[in-house]
Automatic annotation (TrEMBL), chain A:
Its main location: membrane. Keywords: Amino-acid transport, Membrane, Transmembrane, Transmembrane helix, Transport. It comes from Kribbella pratensis. CDD domains: TM_PBP2. This is Polar amino acid transport system permease protein. GO terms for cellular component: plasma membrane. Residues 1-22 are annotated as: Disordered.
UniProtKB/TrEMBL annotation, chain B:
The keyword Cell membrane applies. Residues 4-238 form the ABC transporter domain. CDD domains: ABC_HisP_GlnQ (cd03262). Keywords: Amino-acid transport, ATP-binding, Cell membrane, Membrane, Nucleotide-binding, Transport. This is ABC-type polar-amino-acid transporter. It catalyses: a polar amino acid(out) + ATP + H2O = a polar amino acid(in) + ADP + phosphate + H(+). InterPro entries: AAA+_ATPase, ABC_ATPase_HisP-typ, ABC_transporter-like_ATP-bd, ABC_transporter-like_CS, MetN_ABC_transporter-like, P-loop_NTPase.
Length: 321, 250
């Protein structure tokens, strides 16, 4: 490889411009070699994708276009991700606030919850959620706790229950899946939210308290908005992980789920590899959308930090995703 | 009746007995400057006045209400006491205007227009009308501290606490903040100021309190306490502050 063409001549500087810097740009031969290698590898990959019959792109797109698959993606993947993350983030923030409170009972409950749900593999947790109906064969009732004992003790009859849910309807399908994934996520989000809350200067809470804000307002108006700057990036990661963990819904079991539906098509037509490609494409697309969303959230919660004007800190387009 | 009355105040951090029986009062409209060596408990005393620190013993009575009483509505008591911190502690995620309205809206339940008007008036008072939409990080230290004063004033406090408000500032920015405080004193605000600015204390204070090792050693008009102190500890402290390059003969 010749580098003659890129040689820059410092002699251009005229003698009447003293102090012209005799600068020779740093050359990076390694960088050019790397680019060449990557270009060749990319060409090989493209060739493989286009020419190898195993990909069967027509079948891939047909499979992706089936209504049960689309439903599985929208309900089993997207909806479950959104609902589980709502439970996870909300629960996580509550658990973090409990954990950091001065009340040892609240802190203890939070610790036990986190310990329990972080210990169970999600696959096993989801399987368990699908079987919990057996614990509540008479349903889950809302009313006076231990009402039958109290009624017995008072010598009365009847019950003090206002509303009864059929447990077998809760602990089944997507509802069980969302509860399981949401509780598990809350345990992880609790740690993330705790780190975020602790990252906020204690002087912030003091200033807010000195203004007469109650502890709830201090948390909502002053501490949490600043903690979000630290909480959002790992939460984006968690959301992406959750998106993929929805494929574990099969353990509940939930059959209205993307990969289950793709697999059943694959086994009908004896095509397994194109099915894997179809699933990969779905997950790639969904993850890309999430990354764009994360970019905007990070920008929103980064307001006021750093010395630049908040609006000037915007890079061109959403390219940061 | 005194605006603030402190009786036999004791505060310890673990085995560190920081306040050892403080008694003093601040009258309505009075400007009291607290001076004393670093670590003598000045900040702790100030933070006990709005109960950011809980004293182990003694009473803090604000407008006749004992705020150390567990039944006292602490948040309500704190609304009447503005506080300005050494490190400003502005809310970095809120604009200057929102810093001055957030507590008005959420604590005093003022409507958006009222809160806005009052915040603007106070920002004008500290000379920062043109920075309303800026974020704290875009301001100099002196400007941030003046916003912090406007934020506290927006709650219409009966008393303002200042904990070394100029100690974190570059020397050329100190003057602007002191000018604002001087104006506030002239307007009749009751102020309790921890400071090392002896010239300010001499000029503005009605009374100077000298603290050392958790007790009040000496207090009185600035001309007495700073001009001709009677206690040896006060004299030693003032010699160090007024002539930092002076070397004590050993
Ligand atoms: N939150 C705290 N925890 C433990 N010790 C503290 C705390 N705040 C202050 N102290 C101690 O109390 C003493 C007095 O501190 P402070 O009131 O800040 O003094 P000053 O403001 O006069 O410099 C110091 O010894 C300091 O270490
Ligand atoms: Mg101090």
């Amino acid at each position: 490889m010749s580098t003659d063409a890129t040689e820059t001549r410092p002699t251009d500087a005229s003698p009447d411009r003293p102090g012209a810097i005799n600068a020779v740009p740093v050359r990076h031969p390694g960088r050019w070699i790397a680019i060449a290698v990557i270009v060749i590898l990319a060409a090989m990959l493209l060739h493989l994708l286009l020419s190898n019959k195993a990909f069967d792109w027509r079948f891939v797109f047909q499979a992706m276009n089936q209504q049960p698959v689309i439903n599985g993606f929208i309900k089993g993947t997207l909806l479950v991700t959104v609902l589980s993350m709502i439970i996870g983030v909300g629960g996580g923030v509550v658990l973090a606030v409990m954990r950091l409170s001065d009340n040892p009972i609240l802190a203890g409950v939070s610790w036990v919850f986190t310990w329990f749900f972080r210990s169970i593999p999600r696959y096993i947790l989801l399987f368990t959620m699908g079987t919990l109906g057996i614990l509540f064969q008479q349903g889950i009732a809302f009313g006076v706790p231990f009402d039958w004992k109290i009624i017995d003790w008072l010598g009365l009859s009847g019950d003090w229950r206002f509303y009864t849910l059929d447990a077998n309807q809760i602990f089944t399908g997507i509802v069980a899946g969302v509860i399981g994934l949401g509780l598990s996520e809350a345990a992880y989000m609790a740690e993330i939210a705790r780190a975020g809350i602790m990252s906020v200067d204690p002087g912030q809470a003091e200033a807010a308290e000195a203004l007469g804000m109650s502890s709830g307002k201090v948390m909502r108006r002053v501490v949490l908005p600043q903690a979000m700057r630290v909480i959002v990036p790992p939460t984006g990661n968690e959301t992406i992980a959750m998106l993929k963990d929805t494929s574990l819904l099969l353990a509940v079991p939930v059959i209205g789920e993307l990969f289950y539906q793709l697999q059943s098509i694959g086994s009908t037509y004896y095509k397994t590899f194109p099915i894997a490609v179809a699933a990969t494409l779905y997950y790639l697309a969904a993850t890309s959308v999430l990354m764009v969303g994360q970019y905007f959230l990070e920008r929103h919660f980064g307001r006021g930090f750093g010395t630049k004007a908040p609006r000037a800190a915007r890079p061109a387009g959403a390219g940061g995703a | 009746m005194a605006l603030v009355e402190i009786k036999n105040l004791h505060k310890s951090f673990g085995s560190n007995h920081v306040l050892r029986g403080i008694d003093f009062t601040v009258e309505q409209g009075e400007v009291v400057c607290v001076i004393g060596p670093s670590g003598s408990g000045k900040s702790t005393l100030l933070r006990c006045v709005n109960l950011l620190e809980k004293p182990q013993q003694g009473q803090v009575i604000v407008r006749g209400e004992d705020i150390t009483d567990p039944d006292c509505h602490l948040d309500a008591a704190r609304q009447q006491i503005g506080m300005v911190f050494q490190q400003f502690n502005l809310f970095p995620h809120l604009s200057v205007l929102a810093n001055c309205t957030v507590a008005q809206r959420t604590v005093l339940k003022r409507g958006p227009q009222d809160a806005d008007r009052i915040a603007r008036a106070n920002l004008e008072r500290v000379g920062l009308s043109d920075k309303i939409d800026a974020y704290p990080a875009q301001l100099s230290g002196g400007q941030q501290q003046r916003v912090a004063i406007a934020r506290a004033l927006s709650m219409d406090p009966a008393l303002m606490l200042f904990d070394e408000p100029t100690s974190a500032l570059d020397p050329e920015l100190v003057g602007d903040v002191l000018t604002v405080m001087r104006k506030l004193a002239l307007d009749g605000m009751t102020m309790l100021v921890v400071t090392h600015e002896m010239a300010f204390a001499r000029e503005v204070a009605d009374r100077v309190v000298f603290m050392d090792a958790g007790v009040i050693v000496e207090q009185g008009p600035p001309a007495d306490v700073i001009g001709s102190p009677t206690e040896e500890r006060t004299r030693t402290f003032l010699r160090r502050v007024l002539d930092p390059t002076h070397v004590e003969p050993s």
